[in-house]
Design brief:
- The protein has helices spanning 115-122, 127-141, 155-161, 166-179, 234-237, 258-261; strands at residues 2-21, 31-39, 45-48, 59-77, 143-144, 163-164, 184-191, 200-207, 210-214, 225-231, 240-242, 247-257.
- With 268 residues, the protein is α+β, with helices and mostly antiparallel strands.
- It folds into two domains: 2-78 and 240-261, Immunoglobulin-like; 84-227, Roll (C8orf32 fold), CATH 3.10.620.
- α2 (127-141) runs antiparallel to α4 (166-179) and α3 packs across α4 (166-179).
Length: 268
């Protein structure tokens, strides 16, 4: 499957500001960027810094006045369909170094506070089956409400309120998985099926020697999703981080399957 992706950001900057931008689809790990372009105007300074996970390449820049970013990409998804529910958990002593940090608590995912609940509610299951039960529980108990959370909302808040947006669903999923001693991280993505269309967030869990996407909102499929970057939680994967006050003007994201853009329905 090929996805045609576009994203535009527009912000006013009352003073020179340092920004970190993460909007480019990653190349590799089940996807291939066929073509892409990113127009950011003429910032004062710009540098790319490879992320430690090797998946994304954040862009650091400093600019003033008005910041506009226009991103376009054609991405081929070659991620196979998999049933993560049938996969086994990796014993803790056999986890690779890359997965170990994602066992621990993070800013928005205080997993240690969920141990008792996870044992009581999901203790009879193991591995992917346990992850599947957690995902289904979140989707059935939570209500997707735009604007119901903010940058301070964490997994515990969302768990209590039983509502949120994609990042909140992912935070709860990650916290529950880590409480069950299964490594879990957060991924920012472009995906078909997101309503309203925007940057999207999903959880990824480490099972049977690899990372697997889990979307508790039920909106997306891994085979229709392009990963941007990964991290411990929303603090690591924000599409734009400003290190001073900025003013939002507009933002727009579009994701379409190439065949449909051309007016050709994909074969079944």
């Amino acid at each position: 499957m090929k996805l045609k992706i576009s994203a535009s950001l527009n912000y006013r900057l009352p003073e020179p500001v340092d920004l970190m931008l993460q909007v480019e689809a990653a190349n590799g790990h089940g996807q291939h960027v066929i073509d892409s372009s990113l127009d950011m105007g003429d910032p004062e300074n710009l540098a790319r810094v490879p992320a430690s996970d090797g998946i994304c390449e954040p862009i650091w820049l400093r600019t003033s006045g008005e910041f506009r970013a226009e991103y376009r990409a054609l991405v081929e998804i070659d991620r196979p369909e998999e049933n993560f529910r049938a996969l086994s958990a990796v014993p803790l002593h056999r986890l690779p170094a890359e997965a170990v940090p994602y066992l621990n608590e993070s800013r928005y995912c205080p997993s240690n506070k969920f141990h008792a609940f996870v044992e009581r509610r999901f203790g009879d299951h193991e591995g992917g089956k346990k992850i599947g039960r957690m995902r289904d529980w979140i989707e059935s108990r939570f209500t997707y409400v735009s604007g119901s959370s903010n940058s301070e909302t964490g997994a515990l808040d969302s768990f209590v309120e039983r509502r949120g947006v994609c990042r909140d669903y992912a935070h709860v999923m990650i916290a529950l998985a880590r409480a069950a001693h299964i490594p879990a991280r957060m991924a920012s993505v472009y995906a078909l099926g997101v309503d309203p269309q925007d940057f999207h967030a999903v959880a990824e869990v480490y099972l049977d020697g690899d990372w697997h996407m889990v979307d508790a909102t039920g909106m997306t499929k891994p085979t229709e999703t392009a990963r941007i970057c990964v991290g411990r939680d929303a603090a690591d994967i924000a599409f734009l981080t400003a290190y001073s006050e900025i003013e939002f003007v507009s933002q727009k994201v579009k994701v379409k399957e190439v065949e449909r853009v051309k007016g050709i329905e994909p074969s079944s």
